[in-house]
Amino acid sequence: MVKVSIYIGTSLDGFIAREDGDISWLDKANQNVTLGEDFGFHAFLETVNLIVMGRKTFEQVAAFDTWPYKNNKLIVLTSKRFEIPERLKKTVAISNTLNPIDLIKELSGKSIDHIYVDGGVVIREFLSAGLVDEITVTIVPIIIGKGKSFSGLLPEDLHLQHLKTTVYEFGFVQSKYKIKK
């Protein structure tokens, strides 16, 4: 069975981005983070066989100075045509399979046992389909007032089992949960 995880940062009031998709508030908050601290993200990526995200998230991440996913395979879910930057063509593919259940079926038998989903729309779709097993959320000490949440409106409540919380000296708090099924 494929394990599906979310690894996300939010403002204290639960938003992953402003209403227009802007995440510059994260850059400002990260100025207080100890140099080299990655909140366990690279160790997490070592456990992941595949990353799945939507086009908007991909385009935002692809514009970063440094590609954060190293050599991890990544699938971009989109209904629109777009070009993958040349430097990423070896590890990034595009899929028009927008239904997460269909995507998981497509991937079965391909030696994939841990998927990391990222991006608001894709996260909501995987949560709504009941496919997510674990959520790691890092709360950034900022209130932005309004924006986009990673869960959005779900068809039903999701009950969680707390696994671990780490408090960082610069005010970030990271908690890991298992979704009870």
From TrEMBL:
Species this chain originates from: Candidatus Nitrosocosmicus franklandianus
The UniProt record lists the keyword Oxidoreductase: yes
Keywords, alphabetical: Oxidoreductase
Biological process per Gene Ontology, one example term: riboflavin biosynthetic process
InterPro entries assigned to the protein according to its UniProt record, in alphabetical order: DHFR-like_dom_sf (IPR024072), RibDG_C (IPR002734), Riboflavin_Biosynth_HTPR (IPR050765)
Domain of life where this protein originates: Archaea
Enzyme nomenclature, EC number: 1.5.1.3
GO molecular function: 5-amino-6-(5-phosphoribosylamino)uracil reductase activity; dihydrofolate reductase activity
Residues annotated as domain Bacterial bifunctional deaminase-reductase C-terminal: 4-168
Keyword Oxidoreductase: yes
Protein name: Dihydrofolate reductase
